[in-house]
Amino acid sequence: MKILCLYPAFPRTYWGAEDSLRLAGRKSLMPPLGLLTVAALLPKDWEVRLVDLNVRPLKAKELAWADAVFLSGMLIQRSSLLALADQARAAGKIVVVGGPVATTSPELLTSHADCVVSGEAEDLMATLCAALAAGREALPAHLRAPNRPDVRTLPPPRYDLLDIKAYNSIGVQWSRGCPFNCEFCDIIEVFGRHPRTKSPEQLCRELDAIYATGFRGSVFLADDNLVG
Prior knowledge:
By secondary structure, the chain is of the alpha/beta class.
């Protein structure tokens, strides 16, 4: 099966950082770590490609290539996300949307996607992949993660899918979860209150995977809090 992962564009806000990126000669601050993690969990015989709309536009031939389109993003990216989902559905593609916006605001997505995945997707991947292989009719409209996955079982994200030179820094995530209750933040809804950590060996493998791409810039620790 051919899976096209699409990361929606940020509007001109804090998240886009267009002016500082121009000074640095880069297209985007960081790649979409969630999509790269999901890509690493797909069956090994499936083909996967990724297009980050913050780096370049989507090409018609890339959409034509895909059997299914995976989208992920934050609420601030919803305009681009919904437009991409509608474009993919109009082209006859199966559309699956996950990530923070699908967890906190799934009702915004139900009329734009074949399947909305709420919560951390790792423990849902076997169900999702089996449904995708069976066809659109087998795909549930809404999948909700039953629990928090054990992050110590995860493979390194698929950094090899990136146009690596387009990014100002590359993210790694050692832990998920935050014990605090900041009123402006949705992390406790997305990743829960109890920090879960990867092993030191996992973190080293992820850093090795980044190094293997040829990237020699800064690495951003994308943890919710350094409390693990």
